[in-house]
Amino acid sequence: MEQTTLKIEGMTCSHCESAVDGALRNLQGVQDVQVNVAKGIAEVAYNHSEVTTESMKEAVEEQGYDVK
């Protein structure tokens, strides 16, 4: 299992946290997600043979947030 931290811009509240968390957890291969609105990050544990960081980025961006 691998870990990555996504820097996410535009999160301001618990709804934002839930949207990002749900988008990432819906991806096959994502094992765990910890979203921190105050820091603007999502820490993701995942199986690199099932999901890419690019697909994680796209899933978050589809929710209306920018990933750096």
Automatic annotation (TrEMBL):
Show the CDD domains listed in the entry. HMA (cd00371)
Annotated keywords: Copper, Metal-binding
Q: Name one GO molecular function term.
A: metal ion binding
| Record-given protein name | Copper chaperone CopZ
**KW Metal-binding (keyword) present:** yes
Pfam families assigned to the protein according to its UniProt record, in alphabetical order: HMA (PF00403)
Q: Which residue ranges does the record assign to the HMA domain?
A: 2-68
Read off the InterPro entries from this record: CopZ, Heavy-metal-associated_CS, HMA_dom, HMA_dom_sf
